[in-house]
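FAQ: What does the model actually see?

It sees only this:
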Amino acid sequence: ECIDGRTFAYTQEAVLELRLRLHELEDRLESASFVRIAKNCLVNLCRIRSLRPYVGARLLAMMDNGEEIVVSRRYAKQVKDVLGIEKGV
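And it is asked to produce this:
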């Protein structure tokens, strides 16, 4: 996640500040199961427990730690495509 120009990574044990910009991190994680879900956020697809439709053609991702994250409509189709989800979700 990028907040005020600073990039953070969240793990089960810690919150880490990274020296990389979000687009640099996205490039490095291209072959992993990470995908951009908003202008300021990447998420590990392996950690998404469920997805459901949300207001304004967005999606609501329930993470395996119980956190809910909104997938912006700009990236919703990409997330559904990567996960192989058909229209209607």
